[in-house]
What we know:
Distance between the termini: 25 Å
Strand order of the largest sheet: 1-3-2
Protein name: PadR family transcriptional regulator PadR
Order of helices and strands: HEHHEEH
Amino acid sequence: MNEEWVSQIKRGTLEFVIMSLIQNKDRYGYDVIQTLDNYPMLKTKESTIYPLLRRLLKNGYLESYWQNMGEGIPARKYYKITELGISYLNQLNDDWEMLVQNINELRRG
């Protein structure tokens, strides 16, 4: 696997992937990291995910809330997609579909 290639792909798609994950269900940061760990091309570090989640929160695409997990277990900060986030994700989906279509057309010649 070409590490530089993978790094560039991740950098350009993580926001889209994270927004898609959170649209499916509310998630906390470590849950996002664990889910992405199942996909070698998307595996990433906390130092990448948490700043991205904070930026999406700041931009109004996500909102957060704390969930108590029970006695002796620290509360978790969950992220939920907002209406603005759904609109943004729809645009990302459209852009992704166009990108894939363009690449496929170019590959076919």
